[in-house]
Amino acid sequence: MGDLSILGKIFTETGYGGAIVLIALLTCLAFYGSLIAWIARGKEE
Amino acid sequence: MARVIAEQDMILLQPIMRTGLRFYLLVAALLAVITWGFSTYYRQLTEGLWVTGLNRPVVWGLYIINFVFFIGISYAGTLTSAVLRVTQAEWRRPITRVAEAITLFALLLGASQVIIDLGRPDRMIKLITHGRLQSPLLWDVGTLAMYMLGSLTYLYLPLIPDVAILRDHLGTQVPAWRRRLYQILSLGWQGNAEQRRRLEKGINIMAVFIIPVAVLAHAVVSWIFGMTLRPMWHSTILGPYFLLGAIFSGTATLVIAMTIMRQVLHLEAYITIKQYNYLGLLLLVMSLFWFYFTGAEYLTTFYGDLPDEMTVLLSKLVGEFSWPFWAMILCNFVVPVSILIWKRGRGVVGTFISGVAINIGMWLERFTIVVPTLTRPRLTFYGIGIYRPTLTEWGLFASSAAMFVLLLALFLKLFPAVSIWEVEEGREIVAAKQAVASIAASSEGPVR
Q1: Can you tell me the distance from the alpha carbon of B207 to that of B258, in angstroms, rounded to the nearest whole number?
Q2: Mean pLDDT of chain B
Q3: Which of B49, B90, B184, B254 is the most buried (most CB within 10 A)?
Q4: Which pLDDT score, from 0 to 100, does residue B319 have?
Q5: Which chain A positions have a beta carbon within 8 Å of B152's beta carbon?
Q6: How far apart are CA B3 and CA B167, in angstroms?
Q7: Distance of alpha carbon B42 from alpha carbon B38, whole angstroms
Q8: Could you tell me which of B263, B279, B268 has the C-alpha nearest to residue B358?
Q9: Interface contact B138-A17, CB threshold 8 A
Q10: What pTM value is reported for the model?
Q11: A-chain residues near B3 (CB < 8 A)
Q12: What is the pLDDT of residue B1?
């Protein structure tokens, strides 16, 4: 399996998958959090 | 400035202000069941998975059945709240809150089943540190976590104006910690135009966002099975079949929850025959679709006549798993269709009975998907597997169900069961439509 492309490595090697899932979850958290913060700032307008 | 609440809606605050003996008795009974569950879990943790009926080749049992079942019923909120909100179905307003709460709590309980099934919960971290992207198990962890966070946000956003009502109206009638909680959660809500605009926009964004996430989450649960080469799992129909089953059982759970809520909290003025009629129709359509999907899957397998597949199929149709299979057909198709096809059947009692039958039937469906296939593996050196759930597994099943009810009961003790501001908004829309209609009628004038 020494000739794997980068994409192949990302799919098959351990560690990459967990990191990608963590990044996706953190992105979601940031999105939800910013949405709530934006609504909270509505009282100042 | 205290937010105004209509006199008729004060009934929605009563269960939050007053706690009767019945509530404490319910909590005590649920805690007793949960304690039993924890004691069985402690035994499993200390002695290992041998205390369960799991074995080789039947490596999945009640825990995974319950996992799929709970994730399935979590669809209640997404369908009823998000889909009906996007399509602007007005009748959704009194039932969205409980639907969204069911979603979150069912997801929490569903996810906990996987951790229980692991035997060693500390190994959960290995999914992140050693997980490979090609594994559907990792997809599942990712999508379910995303779905859970989304459901929490989607439950919270429509709560904000109601929490502000609680903050402004309850005062010293509730303990200080609850006043503080309402203060924090209301985000300083005053109900001004800009706040309302942002809230509506935020809820709409989440409604559109949560639908594909929910579809993906349910599809991924099915792919845990479908991506293997096991007989009757490796099928392209499994994704849509799980999704349909999720809508089916989610709606049925919503019907059960809203009926109990309606009776106990006296919400007859809010949850009317209209909601039962529409949800009954939805259950009827879903029942027919479910029967079609089941028939399509079984007929295709039967005509293929592949030995491995036929062994599993026959075990369900006429073998040792025929009783759960035919009970499933009875509960998911015969009972709901015979009741809900009639307009009179789509009342409170008929829809409730159908909801209970469907939930039993959908649990049996998860059983007939998971267990028969595992007892008849392609690797013949295992022979025919046997699976008999032990008291440990039943104890954890009962405590999970009790935990689900407890979370729902505590939620309804802290927050209004019906979204007050959304119901009020619905009344304003009806009043505006009536005003427009009367103006139009008067401008036409009498015909001379």
Answers
A1: 21
A2: 93
A3: B254
A4: 94
A5: 32
A6: 9
A7: 6
A8: B279
A9: yes
A10: 0.93
A11: none
A12: 44
CA-CA distance, B164 to B340, in Å (whole number)? 40
Using 50, 70 and 90 to split pLDDT, how confident is the model at A6?
confident
Which of A5, A12, A31, A32 to mutate to test binding with chain B, by most B CBs within 10 Å of its CB? A32
- Tell me which chain B residue has its CA closest to the CA of residue A43: B195
Which amino acid would we find at residue B400?
S
CB-based contacts of B379: which residues, under 8 Å, 6+ apart? Answer: B57
Residue keyed to tokens 């909590």? B27
The whole-angstrom distance between B41's CA and the closest CA on chain A is 28
User: Per-residue pLDDT tens for B120-137?
Assistant: 999 888 888 888 888 999
Contact list, A21 vs chain B (CB under 8 Å):
128, 131, 138, 141-142, 145
- DSSP code per residue over A10-38: HHHSTTHHHHHHHHHHHHHHHHHHHHHHH
If you search the block for the tokens 């709606």, which residue do you land on? Answer: B251
- C-beta of residue B206 within 8 angstroms of C-beta of residue B147: no
Residue tagged 């427009």 (tokens) = B436
Under a CB-based contact definition with an 8 Å cutoff, are residues B14 and B175 in contact?
A: no
Which single residue is written with the structure tokens 């994730």?
Answer: B71
pLDDT the model gives residue B88: 87
The helix-helix angle for B136-156 and A16-40 (nearest 10°) equals 10
Distance to chain B for A3, nearest Cα, Å: 18
Tokens linked to B12: 């929605």
pLDDT in tens, A9-42: 888 888 888 999 999 999 999 999 999 999 999 8
Q: What is the ipTM of this complex?
A: 0.89
Cα separation, A24 vs B421, whole angstroms: 33
Give the per-residue pLDDT at B381: 78
Residue B56 burial (C-beta neighbours within 10 Å; 0-12, 13-18, 19+): exposed
B129, B149, B188: residue with CB nearest A18: B129
pLDDT of residue A5: 83
- Write out chain B residues lying below 8 Å of A20, CB-based: 133, 142
Task: Name every chain B residue with its beta carbon within 8 A of the beta carbon of A17.
Answer: 131-135, 138
Which portions of chain B are predicted below pLDDT 70?
1-4, 445-448
- Name chain B contacts of A13, Cβ cutoff 8 Å: 132
Nearest-CB residue to B198 (from A12, A25, A39) = A39
Which residue ranges form the domains of chain B, and what is each CATH number?
26-422 (1.20.1630.10)
Distance CA B124, CA B118 (A): 8
Cα–Cα distance measured from residue B138 to residue B123, given in angstroms and rounded to the nearest whole number? 13
